């Protein structure tokens, strides 16, 4: 089915949605989607190109310029977002399973992702419904009415990564729709399936035709066109630094607004006082494992740099390595599995390259560092790699400076608070970081001095939809989530009304 019923013809690989219709690629090309647990294809999608992107942008442009959505009352827009959240709750198991198979994460991680997406849609619904009619500006005269209002920016294009395809799509789609925009989204060609499912839910919720469009296809064609097309008003990209730079350069030629989230090299700083008790030691070790190895380290905010006070380094790293070696690897849908495969053969080879480079540069392997033995839940063809702990690392190593995006933890040591700050900030990124200490004064000082967009104190990884997410330095430009995440998709307009106009008499004539 296509069109008004909002259903796509799976057998025809109709994963491109343009102007309210599900379509195959104009070229007829398709792509197999592989299950990273066994490297076998389990779905087929349309492989769109620049022509498909042009058609989608044209549909979004028409829907914004001529359609009802930008002028839809805020209450109605918010109600639609809440309907989408309810549909996500309804389909939680199905979509969570799809996310697990597509991205390789555990089923429970997939379910949690669906919950977080529903939360994001509800948050932005609540945010826009709670706003006033604009900010009144005091012009110093009763005869002047001055107000600043916010309007949708227009046609937004969105390019999302492979590690959290559904979550990252929601961080862009929910505020864009809440603000009244139309959009075209391109999910990663590696993990597109849950984004396609989300578009289906938007259609089911009653979004007008042309407001939500998706083109499945590669970055060098579809992504490039979404970045440089003259009818696009904003480009939002989440992904790697190299690709993000290309997006920014293409968008700059048309003076488009750009929002970029480009990853991080995130420090997890542990002071000895956090480990002074057995409970504190256990918690800090457990959280260091979570920081580095959840979703096999394929997280932009992964705590891949453990920076630990020298006096507790040996005990801490020994226990960390012991526990890392016990992490249960396997297909994410199997019971008891704690960590799934890497997303692709390319990503595993990249991880292996970084580990080999670190060892050549003097790092000491404390655990992992190789592909695991196959098992009943871990097919030999799958892209598995053991959680790896590299001790005695230093800041000149590639594994310390560059984003690995794999289950690799590097260990550095410090003696003083100043040295800990210097190490934490010695990165061209600045997305997130954590500090572990029982000293509240030290915690506040470290949080103030660390140059990262999110600082966790005695925790790692939680985020709130009502709090901004984004980074300093080469971690990107702009913010997602929170009020600033909504502001990315709006233009501010000042309306100045003179209630008692009279001649100015500036010119004598």
From TrEMBL:
UniProt key word NAD: yes
Catalytic site: 261
Keywords attached to this entry: NAD, Oxidoreductase
Pfam family, one: Aldedh
Pathway, per record: Amine and polyamine biosynthesis; betaine biosynthesis via choline pathway; betaine from betaine aldehyde: step 1/1
Keyword set includes Transmembrane helix: no
Alphabetical list of InterPro entries matching this protein: Ald_DH/histidinol_DH, Ald_DH_C, Ald_DH_CS_CYS, Ald_DH_CS_GLU, Ald_DH_N, Aldehyde_DH_dom
Record PROSITE patterns: ALDEHYDE_DEHYDR_CYS, ALDEHYDE_DEHYDR_GLU
Aldehyde dehydrogenase domain boundaries: 26-495
UniProt family annotation: Belongs to the aldehyde dehydrogenase family.
Protein name as annotated: Aldehyde dehydrogenase family protein
Source species: Streptomyces atriruber
